[in-house]
């Protein structure tokens, strides 16, 4: 018996800024992630600094999908992908973010990419903002702290929907929007608010202001998309890291519930169209000054999402009274403690396939909306064996175990799941480390951290394995 629906969206996921390259080609302007090299330079690099374009940034050329997409899309076709998730870089369409007219060359590039995907029978799935805020909007406006960004984002979304609605049916607004609520996760706050990290920037008040503007921008985008083409499926995208209590001590259980609530704040608003009581109470109780305008409630209510997209890499554990205030650039949440029952990747990401089944059930119960796993994967250092091949068995093991649990959630638990797009289907620049070393791909790209390599593509073992999984609709795994 086939456990998954016939039209299940088997795919692969990337973000434009981590794989396109061509960072200043075709009229593209710089985005905050074009000056953010993460890992090596970390949060010390600030958007207020002058960018030196002669300096090497790993994602400036990335894997050069910008020039090589026909070859890559042919490989995706060979793999049998039903869908491919990428983002549209805001700065290809509006190089500064606030121009009156869009950049035709940028629009034409995505036309070509989407046509190429469709010609292989691959459905594009598009994220409107994958951390790719125009640098100018960060510097001159202060990013999403500024209400002006709501309309600027809505205009960008309108241009994309108008141009691509016949080619792209599945959309998402902001990638992993909820990671900002972890105040120790400097990267997200910095990227999205466009300011350097100071004590003030850590304040929950600022987080709520940024969040409110992003939530309005997302809701407006959903409404605009549906006005342009009612059959568009427009979802949100959250990073889902289930937070377990360290023990059955009620204090640990309560600490986990509070931590989970923060993870859910954005999707609670995206799906329900209004703020949850716990957030309203925090704003009132702690006296935050968050700028609301008349009509905001209606905007949020009218722009609820069609589905919940989420990434799942790991679970985490909290223990009452334990605080880990170190800057967290490896993706682990602050305040987390190791889970003695699961193993971790070389980067400390705890591997927990059962946590995926658990998460699918939690999200299904909470939202009663279709779900879409739009990121899941294993970051590892890949080595060529003596036979000249990459035998990435640990990646296959990780993906197989997660696909098994996902299937149980659908078949046994009745979860409504649209699709599965493992992360980094082709090697790309890692987001949290800024390197090529941490790889997720089923297609290897000859490129190292310093930018050396021919950029040649080759298949890893996982490529053939995943091709069978897709061809059998998940049965041959
Ligand atoms: C998610 C991001 C991606 C991606 C992935 C893996 O948080 O949405 O952009 O990169 O994590 O992270 P990393 O590349 O740091 O291993």
From TrEMBL:
Keyword Hydrolase listed: yes
Active site positions, chain numbering: 375 (nucleophile)
Keyword Hydrolase: yes
Transmembrane segments: none
Pfam family, any one: Glyco_hydro_1
Keywords in alphabetical order: Glycosidase, Hydrolase
Entry's Gene Ontology molecular function annotations: 6-phospho-beta-glucosidase activity
Gene3D superfamilies linked: Glycosidases
EC top class, as a word: hydrolase
InterPro entries xref list: GH (IPR017853), GH_1_N_CS (IPR033132), Glyco_hydro_1 (IPR001360), Glyco_hydro_1_AS (IPR018120)
PROSITE patterns: GLYCOSYL_HYDROL_F1_1 (PS00572), GLYCOSYL_HYDROL_F1_2 (PS00653)
Enzyme Commission number, as recorded: 3.2.1.86
Family according to the record: Belongs to the glycosyl hydrolase 1 family.
Protein name (Swiss-Prot/TrEMBL): 6-phospho-beta-glucosidase
């Amino acid at each position: 018996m086939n456990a998954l629906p016939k039209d299940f969206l088997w795919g692969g996921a990337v973000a434009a800024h981590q794989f396109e390259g061509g960072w200043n080609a075709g009229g593209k302007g710089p985005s905050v992630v074009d000056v953010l090299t993460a890992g090596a330079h970390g949060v010390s690099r600030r958007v207020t600094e002058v960018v030196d374009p002669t300096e090497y940034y790993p994602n400036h050329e990335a894997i050069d999908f910008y020039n090589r997409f026909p070859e890559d899309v042919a490989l995706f076709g060979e793999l049998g992908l039903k869908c491919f998730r990428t983002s549209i870089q805001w700065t290809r369409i509006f190089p500064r973010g606030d121009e009156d007219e869009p950049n035709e060359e940028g629009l034409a590039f995505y036309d070509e990419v989407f046509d190429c995907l469709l010609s292989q029978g691959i459905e594009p799935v598009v994220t409107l903002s994958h951390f790719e805020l125009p640098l100018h909007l960060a510097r001159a406006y202060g990013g999403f702290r500024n209400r002006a960004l709501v309309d600027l984002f809505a205009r960008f979304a309108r241009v994309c929907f108008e141009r691509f609605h016949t080619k792209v049916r599945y959309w998402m607004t902001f990638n992993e929007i909820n990671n900002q609520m972890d105040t120790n996760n400097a990267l997200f706050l910095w990227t999205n608010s466009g300011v350097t990290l100071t004590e003030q920037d850590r304040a929950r008040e600022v987080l709520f202001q940024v969040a409110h503007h992003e939530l309005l921008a997302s809701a407006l985008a959903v409404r605009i998309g549906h006005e342009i083409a009612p059959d568009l499926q427009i979802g949100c995208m959250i990073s889902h890291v289930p937070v377990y209590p360290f023990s059955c001590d009620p204090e640990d259980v309560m600490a986990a519930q509070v931590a989970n609530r923060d993870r859910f704040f954005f999707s609670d608003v995206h799906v329900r169209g209004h703020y949850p009581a716990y957030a309203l109470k925090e704003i009132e109780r702690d006296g935050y000054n968050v700028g609301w305008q008349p009509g905001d409630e209606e905007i949020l209510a009218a722009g609820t999402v069609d589905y919940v997209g989420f990434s799942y890499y790991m679970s985490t554990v909290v223990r009452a009274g334990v605080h880990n205030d170190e800057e967290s650039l490896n993706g682990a949440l602050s305040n987390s403690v190791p889970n003695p029952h699961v193993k971790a990747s070389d980067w400390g990401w705890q591997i927990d396939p059962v946590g995926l089944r658990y998460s699918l059930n939690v999200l299904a119960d909470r939202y009663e909306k279709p779900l879409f796993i739009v990121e899941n994967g294993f970051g590892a250092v890949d080595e060529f064996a003596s036979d000249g091949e990459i035998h990435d068995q640990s990646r296959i093991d990780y993906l197989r175990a997660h696909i098994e649990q996902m299937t149980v959630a659908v078949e046994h638990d009745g979860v409504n799941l649209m699709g599965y797009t493992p992360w980094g289907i082709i090697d790309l620049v890692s987001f949290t480390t800024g390197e090529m070393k941490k790889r997720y791909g089923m297609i290897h790209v000859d490129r190292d951290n310093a930018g050396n390599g021919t950029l040649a593509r080759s298949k890893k073992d996982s490529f053939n394995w995943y091709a069978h999984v897709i061809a059998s609709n998940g049965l041959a795994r």
